[in-house]
Amino acid sequence: MTNHAADKRGWIAGQQSSITNRLLWRGLLYLLLTLGLALFLLPMVWLVSGSLKPDGQVFTIPPTFIPRPIVWSNYPQALNKFPFWVSLKNTMTIVIGVLLGRVLTASLVAYSFARLRFPGRSVLFVIVLSTMMIPYHVVLIPQYLIFRNLNWLNTALPIIVPNWFGGGAFFIFMMRQFFMSLNQEIDEAARIDGCGFFSVFWRVILPQSLPALGALSIFTFMGEWNDFFAPLIYLNTEDKMTLAVAIRTWQFDTNTTYQAATWPELMVMSTILTIPPVLVFFFLQRYFIQGVVVTGVKG
Predict the structure, then answer these.
(1) Measured between alpha carbons, how far is 76 from 297 in angstroms, rounded to an integer?
(2) In this predicted model, what pLDDT tens digit does every residue of 14-29 receive, in sequence order?
(3) What DSSP line would sit under 31-54, residue for residue?
(4) What is d(CA 211, CA 187) in angstroms, rounded to the nearest whole number?
(5) Alpha helices in the chain (DSSP H)
(6) 70 lies in some domain
(7) What CA–CA distance (Å, rounded) separates 51 from 47?
(8) What average pLDDT does range 273-280 have in this prediction?
(9) 130 and 231 share one domain
(10) Is residue 72 a part of any domain in this protein?
(11) Model's pTM, two decimal places?
(12) Are 270 and 278 in contact (CB under 8 A)?
């Protein structure tokens, strides 16, 4: 009986020690994650703080994160000086055009690679994947000459139209991985009911693909909203510029019709520029995480 009680006390002590160790490791993990979060949030905090400071306080040494005083008028002043609504319309036109084209065509091409059987399918898929190895700058000049001959320069067409022809190898690969994880018997059942290949794709496959489509949409929105290079190359006049290019032009180009910008006003526009991607990811993060996880299930 004494040995049994001693064993029980030893077992309880071991359990308590194990729980204590787990709590310590979990506390250490949370501490490291908190420090990492603070490190990544620091530039954003400084940006928001700078947008509320008087012009002379932005680059004070040592830096201050609490404005004294808080200048709320920086926001209306920046929006009055800067052609925000025109640039926002241009940006959203490109984002929506690219998003629709990429979602429809990338998923359609991926469906053909994942669910259909035709000669040369594997070879074509390898060729599509090999295009990811080509740097964008290699094809930039040929593309620019093509769009110039089509009289598409200074329009959104050079940025939007290519995404209606497959949407890019990475997104085709991502959607193909997801489609291959779906049960093949669904296609067979739909075809028995009289659906053709396109009907199966539109009525059966796409409604089950919300996680992958959500991930594709987030990647596309983030990329096009923040894209600077392509709009800089193809859009030349102020009334066609996107937000990213217009803010940069407002900062450095003295030949524009914009009124000169102060540093707090530039930080105001930069803060506003970061809000939509944060909101999009916040509301669609569930689909994003599911899509990223599921698209790697099968090769």
Answers:
(1) 49
(2) 666 677 778 888 888 8
(3) HHHHHHHHHHHHHHHHHHHHHTS-
(4) 19
(5) 2-51, 74-81, 84-115, 121-130, 140-149, 157-160, 169-180, 185-192, 197-199, 210-226, 229-234, 243-252, 263-294
(6) no
(7) 6
(8) 87
(9) yes
(10) no
(11) 0.81
(12) no
pLDDT at 92: 94
Residue 138 scores a pLDDT above 80: yes
**pLDDT greater at residue 161 or residue 81:** 161
* Residue with token string 């025109």: 86
Q: Is 160 found in the same domain as 47? A: no
In this structure, what token pair is assigned to residue 258?
């914009």
Whether residue 15 is found in the same domain as residue 118: no
On whether both 131 and 226 belong to a single domain, the answer is yes
Q: How far apart are CA 246 and CA 266, in angstroms?
A: 11
Residues in the chain: 299
Judgement on whether residues 230 and 97 belong to the same structural domain of the protein: yes
Position 143 scores a pLDDT of 93
115 and 6 both lie in a single domain: no
| Cβ neighbours of residue 87 closer than 8 Å, sequence gap 6 or more | 241, 242, 243, 246, 247
Residue 103 CB contacts under 8 Å (≥ 6 apart), including other chains: 167, 213, 216, 217, 220
Domain limits for position 150: 77-294
For the cut 90, the answer to whether the pLDDT of residue 12 exceeds it is no
Domain shared by 44 and 84, yes or no = no
CA 102 – CA 224 distance, rounded (Å): 12
How many angstroms separate the CA atoms of 230 and 236, rounded? 11
Structure tokens at 51: 């947008």
Q: Which two tokens stand for residue 157?
A: 């067409």
Q: Is 234 helix (H, G, I), strand (E, B) or coil?
A: helix
In sequence order, the 6+-apart residues with CB closer than 8 A to the CB of 236 are: 153, 154
Contact (CB, 8 A) for 261 and 251: yes
- Name the burial class of residue 75, with classes exposed (0-12), middle (13-18) and buried (19+) by CB atoms within 10 angstroms of its CB: middle
Give the domain CATH number at 148. Answer: 1.10.3720.10
End-of-domain residue from the set 13, 33, 51: 51
- Which residue stretches of 229-262 are H helix? 229-234, 243-252
